[in-house]
Amino acid sequence: MDINLEQEYIVMSQDKNDSIGDVDFYAAIQAHVLWRGRLEAYINGTGSEKLDADLVSRDSHCALGEWIEGAGGKHFSNHPKFPELIKAHTCFHKRAGEVIRTNDNGDKNKAKELLKGEYAKCSQKVKNNLAKLGIDEKDA
Question: Of 39, 31, 38, whose CA–CA distance to 100 is shortest?
């Protein structure tokens, strides 16, 4: 399984000479929206992919995590929403891993509860913070 689980949805443009790597904020938000469906399919046994809880739990092994640790971190280090994005993104991955692990341990009902609860909260925070950074970058 490819460790850049969001790579197909996040566009990092090499065409522009911009210090933030030109992350597509909308695509990053969409990637996080799509994760819920992937997790639901995994829990329900209707998905075609085998998700690895340990791998998914690592927030630095996805395109957004790499951007946060690289160009995004350099550009947005003083932005008030950036630390919130980091925290929410870490939470997102930990909770996604927890959903997978719980399901793998045979407790589908608990996995569904986690998906609708803590995972959903972290996911929403990631999306909100990405949207705010994107808006602020456009206005700059």
Answer: 39
**What local confidence, expressed as pLDDT, does residue 23 receive?**
78
Residues 6+ apart with CB under 8 A from 69: 60
Cα Rg for the chain, rounded, in angstroms? 15
User: pLDDT below 50 — which residues of the chain?
Assistant: 1-19
Sequence-separated (6 or more) residues with CB below 8 Å from residue 90: 59
Per-residue model confidence as pLDDT tens digits over 17-32: 333 566 788 888 998 8
Residue listed under structure tokens 């690592």: 58
Question: What tokens were used for 129?
Answer: 């913070």
pTM, rounded to two decimals:
0.84
Residues 6+ apart with CB under 8 A from 6: 28, 31, 32, 62, 63, 64
